[in-house]
Amino acid sequence: MNLQITPQRTLAETAIIDAFGERLSALPGDGAVMVKRDNAIEAVKAGLPTKRVESWHYTDLRRLLTSVPPHDETANAKAVAPLIEGSTVLSVLNGVASEKPAAIDGVTVQPLAEKLADGSFAPALETYGSDDAIGALNIAFVGDGFFVDIAEGSELEAPLELQNVQAGGQTHVRLPVRVGNGAKATIVERQTGSGAALASSVSQLLLGDDAEILWIIVQDQPETATHFAQFKAELGKNSKLTLFIMNAGGKLVRQEVVVDAKGEGADFKLRGVNLLAGDSHTDVTMVLDHSVPHTTSTEVIRNVVTGRAKGVFQGRINVAQYAQKTDAKMACNTLLLSDDGEFSTKPELEIFADDVQCGHGATVTEIDHNHLFYLMARGIDEKTARGLLVKAFLAEVIEELEDEPTVEALEALLDGWFATHG
Amino acid sequence: MLEIKNLHARIVEDGTEIIRGLNLTVKAGEVAAIMGPNGSGKSTLSYILAGREDYEVTEGDILYNGESILEMDPAERAAAGIFLAFQYPMEIPGVATMEFLKVAMNAQRKARDEEPLKIPELLKRVKEAAGSLNMDMAMLKRPLNVGFSGGEKKRAEILQMKLLEPKLCVLDETDSGLDIDALKIVADGVNALRSPDRAIVVITHYQRLLEYIVPDSVHVLYRGQVIKSGDKSLAVELEENGYAGIIEEAA
Ligand SMILES: Nc1ncnc2c1ncn2[C@@H]1O[C@H](COP(=O)(O)OP(=O)(O)OP(=O)(O)O)[C@@H](O)[C@H]1O
Ligand SMILES: [Mg+2]
Questions:
Q1: What is the pLDDT of residues B190-224, one digit of tens each?
Q2: What is the C-alpha to C-alpha distance for residues A265 and A287, in angstroms, rounded to an integer?
């Protein structure tokens, strides 16, 4: 909150504030949760961030969020087939956790509404800074989600898919996952739907020592949806987290990644594929803290931009003063398929330690005409040839996942996207 | 099968004319050799046949089976049976060779209203063709031409040609960079494709290749024109005396 005079509210700000008044009595939570909600809505009342707020410079939320739909009780979202066959699916449909699936070995699942109602989740409802507009919006309205606890030492055979499916209106969901020491799992976070919703979703991962998680976020909202997402993680000693994000939809999308490598030996990999089309605006913003010595991270982001789409990647890496031997590398490469597409990259390295290796690079390219000619000279029509080259551009990040069904599923999504937008 | 009539073409980017009134006719069943000094326009001609957009035809025509191909894009020309084995095959990172072969073969089949090949049949064909060229299947798992040696790239071009079964094959210096054994293997591959309904245009600097792939006609290209045509003895004469005499004669 600040003391400056609040400027006239936008339609969107007014709609959010009004919705809070209407929804409050229906939202779960004890006194502690309600205090958090009240504080959070105050932040919204102070105004949505504009481009003058550094972390929102490329995504002027106040200007870009032009309308906010009302909550829609009648919206009827349906679970979708899992990304990877054989996954255990937990779906949140239109903001409400559906029934739990049959028991999974080593996993405890609880609907988040219960933990809001009894107040046990209140301490976890925290924003990470005064510019955390998504966190604030979500805290104010969060209604449900799943609280997942993976027991120490358990290795999940099947991937666990957390689905968040909207069918219009507003949905505000949280997906906290606690992973015990030494546990291993693949977790898929599906952000999808069919309506012109305003969706906010916050994932919170607590990774125990020596735990290993592959977390795959697939966002393919319709081109009318506004999608605000946050992925927050804390990494224990010698733990490994690979976060793969595919954005392939939405009208206004912001995906924040907030990771704290707070255990020595922790390793974080971020791999991102942004497929941007139409008039969409997609922003991936990462803040990564290397808080202790001997932690490593690499971030590789590949973007394909067509139409008049705009994309943003902000990658901020903070290396604390005593976090010696940090090794961090960041790359962001964009393939522009149209003249009107745009991608802005902003790497930021804040390094207070002296014995570290940090680097970053960004490129923007177009399809290589010589390559295109070669493929076409073998009888491959232009669209297919371009598709092959787009896939080639992304292949490295996708194939790095190695697991064949996962790679195939992501490539199928890519093919589908390219068939409509390429 | 191929008739090039008074062809003039220039580089789109800077307007430089490279092909300056070129005439050439190649009949079905014929093997024609094109020779000529460096920079005379041999590769440019091959690119124009394949439809590369960096060049613009300003005059004349190219007829393939009696019809102009100037309005066709490279993929349409390839599907119609025109194949260019590149002098410098391009490396395409991220595209697996095998996947590329599959897409190319099926794209051409589709353009001819044929059913796509099933994977086992496709593999069988690729294995056979690769075997006949002494190529290791492991190479085909790698990205297209990436890290292939000069000779391996040339072999990969011939492999594609065998699999795609084109009607008009244009080989741009396929012999350069090949050792003697590879040269024989590649020549055998080309000879196996000789047939009454297929024409082959071999661009080369060396008589040696023409001992293995014996041409029906030899054409000398100089400054964007065919300045002399003859039979295989012309190649022998060039090998002995170089281009100077012929260039003077034409001037
Ligand atoms: N895209 C281009 N841009 C600039 N110059 C070009 C281009 N393409 C061809 N040229 C020029 O046109 C001329 C003919 O080139 P081309 O490659 O066709 O010769 P070539 O007969 O194949 O020679 P070589 O025997 O060395 O392969 C050369 O002077 C070359 O530099
Ligand atoms: Mg040449």
A1: 999 999 999 999 999 988 899 999 999 999 999 99
A2: 19
Does domain B2-250 fall under CATH 3.40.50.300? My reply is: yes
Q: Which amino acid is at A22?
A: E
Mutate to test the pocket of ligand 1, among B35, B43, B55, B227 (most ligand atoms within 8 A of CB): B43
pLDDT given for residue B93 in this prediction: 92
* Cβ–Cβ < 8 Å for A227, A219: yes
The per-residue pLDDT for A418 is 93
A399 to chain B: closest CA residue? B94
Decide: A349 and A327 in contact? Cβ < 8 Å: no
Task: Please state, in angstroms and rounded to a whole number, the distance separating the CA atoms of residues A213 and A124.
Answer: 21
Please state, in angstroms and rounded to a whole number, the distance separating the CA atoms of residues A214 and A44. Answer: 33
* Strands A252-261 and A281-290, sheet pairing: parallel
Whether A2 maps to a domain, the answer reads no
Span B97-109, pLDDT tens digits: 999 999 999 999 9
CA–CA distances in Å: residue B177 to residues A151, B145, B225:
61, 15, 26
- Average pLDDT over chain B reads 93
* Residues forming beta bridges with residue A107, ordered by sequence position: A104, A150
How far does residue B243's CA lie from ligand 1's centre (Å)? 18
Q: State the Cα–Cα distance between residues A246 and A303, nearest whole angstrom.
A: 10
Q: Return the amino acid letter for A359.
A: G
CA distances from B153 to A150, B74, B240 (A): 51, 21, 30
Q: What is the DSSP letter of B215?
A: -
Measured over all CA atoms, what is the biggest interatomic distance in chain B, rounded to whole angstroms? 57
Rg over CA atoms, chain A: 21
Q: What total of structural domains would you count in chain A?
A: 2
User: In a mutagenesis test of the B interface, which of A380, A384, A397, A408 is the best target, namely the one with the most B β-carbons within 10 Å?
Assistant: A380
Chosen for mutation from A373, A386, A399 (greatest number of chain B CBs closer than 10 Å) is: A373
Residue A365 has pLDDT above 80, yes or no: yes
Ligand 2 centre and the CA of B225: distance in Å? 15
Question: Do A73 and A192 reside in the same domain of the chain?
Answer: yes
CB atoms within 10 A of CB B66: 7
What pLDDT score does A358 carry? 82
Strand pairing report for A144-150 and A107-111: antiparallel
Is A385 contained in some domain?
Answer: yes
pLDDT the model gives residue B140: 92
Torsion over CA of A96, A101, A104 and A107, rounded to 10 degrees?
10
Q: What ipTM was reported for this prediction? A: 0.96
Task: Let me know whether A141 and A280 are in one domain.
Answer: yes
Pair of tokens at residue B215: 């041409």
pTM of the model: 0.90
What is the Cα–Cα distance from B20 to B26, expressed in whole angstroms?
19
**Per residue in B62-76, pLDDT tens?**
999 999 999 999 999
User: Cα separation of B31 and B209, whole Å?
Assistant: 13
The H-assigned helical ranges of A183-316 are: none
**Alpha carbon distance B9, B30 (integer Å):** 25
Contacts of A391 in chain B (CB under 8 A): 94-95
Residue A7 lies in a domain: no
**Quick one: A282 and A391 in the same domain?**
no
